[in-house]
């Protein structure tokens, strides 16, 4: 749902650079460092209901200070003219932990006067549907699983998701006959459970229209595919919460669907919590700087909470430099020069993506 266009003024790459990967990366790095004209707009933000929006950020009001032990006096400007350490005085430090079905703990974040887990539970009790959005790895799914660990159905949306996946359909039995099997939406409504529609933006809006009658005052679902199933009245406790990544190609969210979510919240990585959970500070600092570059339109990738926790574990097993090289290799190819430059400056040495 984001449209981003950038034009760089740069010389034509040399023939030798096109035949040598390292030289090509160097020239691309210099190109991205040149002036650019660009615009980034969020279609999703323009459609969101303003009265129900909230942003869970860990960088609000952040200030930049010069880091110690890093030489920024290079004569030739590079992608990262400066490396900034973001102060996280307003960061969302997790204090209360909640178990997830996979056995991991989720650390709650303050959301106004409540924690995010408390907001979801209170919103469910009062019937306020929630839409969480943000880049992958920031904790959207983990938050929902922590809020409703024992009362949650989940469906992972895609362009192939059909009405039958939500409502139900006939499946063939071993004897050759057919029997009706309820879909995840029907089961959640019948049992009074919460339903997480993950990656809701990838599901065809026509398919998503089947949830409308359950999310408004009617609170019912007419199963037209099976007259014997009839009309399903949502049992008390039924609740819809969804998550999406607006940056993924093909995301579509109709105004009719968005209007049924009373609360919209963007989730971002909690940098302070990442450090609290043992992620090396240098990795957090580099990731924060890349995140700022994403906001400025200089790159499109920055490690998020999920990647940082994996970095922590891999650094313990294989060493810090190995973990950095692995992290850089996971970045989109076009963003690797920027990421390598930032991580290299923070760690004090040139580090390239992993290559076997």
SSE map:
Blueprint: E1 2-8, H1 15-19, H2 21-32, E2 36-42, H3 43-47, E3 53-56, E4 64-65, E5 85-86, E6 97-99, E7 105-107, E8 110-111, E9 114-115, H4 116-126, E10 130-133, H5 140-147, E11 152-156, H6 163-167, E12 168-172, E13 178-182, H7 184-191, E14 194-198, H8 205-208, H9 212-215, E15 220-222, E16 231-233, E17 239-244, H10 255-258, E18 263-267, H11 271-276, H12 281-295, H13 305-318, H14 320-329, H15 336-347
Parallel strand pairs: 3-18, 10-17, 10-18, 11-14, 14-17
Antiparallel strand pairs: 1-2, 4-5, 6-7, 8-9, 12-13, 15-16
Helix pairs in contact: 2-15, 4-5, 12-15, 13-14
Question: How would you briefly describe this protein structure?
Answer:
By secondary structure, the chain is of the alpha/beta class.
Walkthrough of the structure:
This protein has 356 residues and is of the alpha/beta class. Helices cover 35% and strands 21% of the residues. It has 15 helices and 18 strands. The chain has helices at 15-19, 21-32, 43-47, 116-126, 140-147, 163-167, 184-191, 205-208, 212-215, 255-258, 271-276, 281-295, 305-318, 320-329, 336-347, and strands at 2-8, 36-42, 53-56, 64-65, 85-86, 97-99, 105-107, 110-111, 114-115, 130-133, 152-156, 168-172, 178-182, 194-198, 220-222, 231-233, 239-244, 263-267. The strands form seven sheets. It has a six-stranded parallel beta sheet with strand order 3-18-10-17-14-11, with helices on both faces. The protein has a two-stranded antiparallel ribbon with strand order 1-2. It has a two-stranded antiparallel sheet with strand order 4-5. The protein is elongated and about 70 Å long. The two termini are 36 Å apart. The model is unreliable at 1-8, 36-43, 58-81 and 86-94 (pLDDT under 50).
